[in-house]
Specification:
By secondary structure, the chain is an alpha+beta fold. 52% of the residues lie in helices and 17% in strands. It contains 12 helices and 12 strands. The strands form 3 sheets. The chain has a 5-stranded antiparallel sheet with strand order 2-1-5-4-3. A 5-stranded mixed sheet has the order 7-9-10-12-11, with helices on one face. A two-stranded antiparallel ribbon has the order 6-8. The longest helix is centred in the first third of the chain and has 43 residues. The chain is elongated, with a radius of gyration of 48 Å. The relative contact order is 0.05.
Length: 475
C-alpha cells in the first residue's frame, strides 16, 4: 500500500521519521556503551529498544493506514457517499479524524431529515391537490394529445359515466370515447380538428338518455408549461352541467316574449277605445262609460304588470323589504274577496268563503299580503273552467294563520309541481298557455310569504284542481 500517496500518510511521515531516528540512536548507544562492556546485556537492550520503537511506529502507522483506507473508499465511491468511518487508537490524529467523522455523520443525518421532510411535503401537496380536484363541482380530467385519460376526478365520472366510483383513467379510456357515448359525432367535430390541438375549444352537448335532458359544457385547454420548460403535450378538460342555466335563459326569454305580449295587448285596446272616443261624434252615455271602464281596466292591467316587473327586480337584487303595520286581517280578506267576485261571476264560478268568527290583528305588510292573495285568487279564477268551484278558507292553528285557496281547475302535473314557485316558470299545458301570464305571480307570493317568516305549499292533481296553502306566524 502506498501510504505516502495519501494525505494522512504524508501528515504522519515526519513524526514517524523522528521516532525511527530516536530509537535507532538509542539502540546504537546501547550497543556502543553497554554492549562493549557487557555484551550479554547490551545486545538484548538494543533489541528491546528497537522492538519498542517498532511497536510505537506500528501504532502510528495503523491509524494512518485506517484513515487511508477510508479516504480511498470515499475517492472511489459515488459522489454522494461521504461516510467517514471511525478509526481505532488514541492520540491527536485518531481523535481529530473521529471528530470529523462525527460532524460529517451529523451533517448527513440533517440532510437526510431535510430530504425526508421535502418528500413528505411534496406528498402532502400532491394529496391536497387531489382532494381539491376530487371535491370540485365540475368534472376535471387530464389527457395526452390523443385524448388518453391520465387523471379524472369523481365528478367527471358521474357526469359522463353516471358512477362516481368509476375511474376512466384505469380503463385506458379516452375523453372522445366517453363523450361519444353522450353526444353525436358531429357535435364533437370541433374537438377533432387537428388545428385545434394547440388552442382552447368549448362546446355544449345534450344528454338525452336521462329522465331530464341535461346540457353539458365541455372545455379543452392545452396544458401550458412553466417558463423554460418543454411543451407538456397534454390537455386539461373541464365538464360542467349547465342545465339550470339553460333553463333559466329559456324561461327569461319566454318571460320577455310574454311581457311584450302583455304590454302590447292593453296598449292596443287603450289606443282603439281612445280613438273611438275621439272620433265618434255621437255616443250614448252608457257606451262612453263602457269605453272609459275598458280603458281604465287596461291601464290597471299595465300597472300590475309594471309592478310585477319592479317587484321581481327587487327580488333578484335582494332589496324587496317589508313595511309592517298592524293589520285587520278579516277586513283585508273581505276586501280581497269582494274584488275577486267579478272574476268569479264572469266565468260562473261557485265562490265559497269560510272565515273564522274572529280573526286577530297582525303585524303585516298589508299591501304585499294583499298582492299575494290577489295572485292566488286570480290564478284560481283564471285556470278554472266555466262552472267550476273556487274556495277561500282561513284557519287558525295555535300561533299560525293559515289561508287556503282551492279550485277545481286544470291542475298541475306531478313533474311540474316542484317548479311552480320559480321565476318565469310557465306550464307546458296548452290550457294554461292559452291564458296570458308572465310566470312571476307565484314567485312573488313565495317571496312575500317567506319574508313574513311563513311558508307556502301546494297540492294538485292534474285535471282535478289545486290547493295553495299559506302559513303566517301570528307572533
Amino acid at each position: 500500500m502506498d501510504v505516502a500517496a495519501s494525505p494522512a500518510a504524508t501528515s504522519m511521515s515526519r513524526p514517524i521519521l523522528a521516532y525511527y531516528l530516536v530509537f535507532s540512536l538509542l539502540a546504537l548507544a546501547c550497543l556502543q556503551g553497554i554492549g562493549a562492556r557487557w555484551p550479554v546485556v547490551g545486545i538484548p537492550a538494543a533489541c528491546a529498544v528497537l522492538a519498542l520503537g517498532g511497536v510505537l511506529i506500528h501504532r502510528r502507522l495503523r491509524t494512518a493506514d485506517a484513515i487511508d483506507v477510508h479516504l480511498r473508499r470515499i475517492a472511489a465511491g459515488p459522489p454522494d457517499d461521504l461516510q467517514m468511518g471511525i478509526v481505532a487508537g488514541a492520540g491527536p490524529t485518531a481523535n481529530g479524524w473521529n471528530r470529523l467523522a462525527a460532524v460529517a455523520a451529523q451533517a448527513e443525518n440533517n440532510q437526510g431529515l431535510h430530504d425526508r421532510l421535502g418528500e413528505a411535503l411534496a406528498r402532502y401537496r400532491c394529496r391536497s391537490n387531489d382532494l381539491i380536484l376530487d371535491s370540485f363541482p365540475d368534472g376535471v380530467a387530464v389527457t395526452d394529445l390523443q385524448g388518453q385519460i391520465t387523471y379524472a376526478n369523481p365528478t367527471l365520472a358521474s357526469l359522463l359515466l353516471d358512477a362516481e366510483d368509476e375511474d376512466p383513467s384505469q380503463d385506458g379510456a379516452t375523453m372522445y370515447e366517453c363523450l361519444s357515448q353522450q353526444a353525436a359525432h358531429s357535435d364533437l367535430a370541433p374537438l377533432m380538428e387537428p388545428e385545434s390541438q394547440d388552442r382552447s375549444v368549448v362546446i355544449e352537448i345534450t344528454r338525452f338518455d336521462l329522465d331530464v335532458d341535461r346540457v353539458l359544457r365541455v372545455a379543452r385547454h392545452p396544458l401550458r408549461p412553466a417558463a423554460g420548460e418543454p411543451a407538456a403535450g397534454s390537455h386539461v378538460w373541464s365538464v360542467r352541467d349547465v342545465t339550470q342555466q339553460k333553463l333559466a335563459e329559456k324561461m327569461h326569454t319566454e318571460f320577455v316574449n310574454s311581457a311584450t305580449h302583455e304590454l302590447r295587448t292593453p296598449m292596443a285596446n287603450i289606443k282603439a277605445y281612445a280613438e273611438t272616443l275621439a272620433q265618434a261624434d255621437e255616443l250614448e252615455v252608457e257606451e262612453q262609460k263602457e269605453f272609459c271602464n275598458t280603458i281604465n281596466s287596461e291601464v290597471s292591467r299595465l300597472s300590475r304588470l309594471i309592478d310585477d316587473m319592479l317587484s321581481i327586480e327587487s327580488m333578484e337584487v335582494g332589496s324587496l323589504a317589508l313595511s309592517r303595520q298592524e293589520t285587520d286581517v278579516e277586513r283585508l280578506l273581505r276586501e280581497k274577496v269582494e274584488m275577486a267576485r267579478p272574476l268569479m261571476d264572469k266565468k260562473s264560478l261557485s265562490f265559497q268563503v269560510r272565515l273564522p268568527e274572529k280573526l286577530p290583528k297582525m303585524l303585516l305588510d298589508k299591501d304585499k299580503v294583499a298582492l299575494a292573495i290577489d295572485n292566488l285568487l286570480g290564478n284560481a279564477a283564471k285556470y278554472t273552467p266555466h262552472g267550476g268551484e273556487v274556495a277561500l278558507r282561513v284557519d287558525i292553528d295555535e300561533d299560525t294563520l293559515q289561508i287556503h285557496v282551492q279550485d277545481s281547475g286544470v291542475g298541475i302535473s306531478e313533474e311540474e309541481l316542484p317548479k311552480v314557485f320559480e321565476k318565469f316558470f310557465r306550464s307546458s299545458d296548452e290550457r294554461i298557455r292559452e291564458e296570458t301570464g308572465t310566470g312571476l305571480g307565484l314567485a312573488m307570493v313565495w317571496e312575500i310569504v317567506h319574508l313574513h317568516g311563513g311558508d307556502i305549499k301546494v297540492q294538485s292533481t292534474l285535471n282535478e284542481g289545486s290547493t295553495f296553502s299559506i302559513s303566517l306566524p301570528m307572533g
